[in-house]
Design brief:
This protein has about 130 residues and is an alpha/beta fold. Helix content is about 55%, strand content about 10%. It has a single domain, classed as 5'-nuclease (Rossmann fold). The protein is built from 6 helices and 5 strands; from the N terminus they run E-H-H-E-H-H-E-H-H-E-E.
């Protein structure tokens, strides 16, 4: 299972690559997941309405890890633990990481913050 962080979507779009076209094979094989935080981060940054509409439709069909109260409690615990170690990470990254860990997914990202999260599986590209 893989969860694509918003940094990858943004990089692909800046390179003129279509994230939907790149990710359809992973969706088709059932290995692609997302979470609500990634959806929000990606869609808020899209400039063109047509691209936003296409990405919205795509996010609507990707299986989404639910942001339950239990998951948010786990993210809060992770934040507390890392903060005490002097590693204050963005809340959005902590929630994304918690979603991925809960699903047993590898996070595909360029964001170096994720390297500080113990037990999180990471890759830089598909």
């Amino acid at each position: 299972m893989i969860l694509i962080d918003s940094t990858k979507y943004i990089t692909w779009m800046r390179q003129g690559r279509n994230p939907v076209a790149l990710l359809v094979p992973s969706l088709t094989t059932g290995e692609l997941l997302t979470c609500g935080i990634v959806r929000i981060e990606v869609l808020r940054g899209v400039i063109k309405p047509k691209a936003k509409a296409e990405l919205t439709r795509f996010f609507d069909i990707i299986p989404e890890i639910p942001l339950t109260s239990v998951l948010l409690r786990e993210a809060a615990e992770l934040a507390w633990t890392l903060d005490r170690q002097g590693q204050v990470l963005p809340l959005s990254d902590l929630i994304i990481a918690t979603c991925a860990k809960r699903a047993g997914a590898t996070v595909i990202t360029e964001d170096l913050h994720f390297r500080q999260i113990p037990g999180l599986k990471l890759r830089a590209d598909l």
